[in-house]
Write a structure and sequence with these properties.
The chain is an alpha/beta fold and 244 residues long. The chain contains seven helices and 13 strands. It has a single domain, classed as 3-Layer(aba) Sandwich (Rossmann fold). 32% of the residues lie in helices and 28% in strands. The strands form three sheets. Strands 8-5-4-9-10-12-11-13 form an eight-stranded mixed β-sheet, with helices on both faces. It starts with a strand and ends in a 5-residue tail after the last strand. The relative contact order is 0.14.
Amino acid sequence: MERLVVEHGVRPNGASAVTVRDPATGAAVECLMTQYEPVVYDTLAGFVPASGARLAEAGSFRGGSAAVLWHGLRRRGRDAGAVLACHDVFEPFSLGADTVDIEAEFDATVRAWGIEGAVKVKGDSKRTAGVHAPGSLDYVFVDGDHTYAGALGDLRAFAPALRPGGWLVVQDCVGDVAAALATFFESEAGWHRVEITPPDGHFVSVCHRDPEALQSFAAALREALGRAGEGEHEAFSFAGPAPQ
């Protein structure tokens, strides 16, 4: 299966737009991501269990992150038995001058991309995280409430559901979200992270309890970014407890 096509554009309000497209089916979805991010999530798909992976998102919006992750699983043959719980309030959202019917667009993305394992969990993710048993998840993607209290609430709500070898991924890790992650690291021992920092400083933090797993991920991501033509612009740095 081919890699995703990432198309860069500009919205009417001047903000950058990224559309990911499946070259095999033509399915496409606009994502609130920077241009390198689909490569990050595609790479992470290679680090979850080969079958029966249990994954969750706090904040799903139109389904772009779900589509990218699921495509990464499928092209590696890792989608068998996988479940992706998509937590969101799924309420209409103002994007510039437009009001987006998020739930309808999310449902359309799931259908178009064939995300068979998607389970929609509607509500405040800080509360709906409780549907996951402790130690049951292999991967959690946090991109919901971007306030300090909201981001910290998501981190604290979902972290107990991660198995010891699970991945915690935080998007838009700047400002209040970065402060929330710093507080989480101060209060939760044993976590390490690698930050993927693009030229605009709008970065993603990938967190794990095993620094060697993070080093393997970072090496794989460097290689993938190089193939995608993005590698020369990216910088990686470990933060939090130093790798042993």
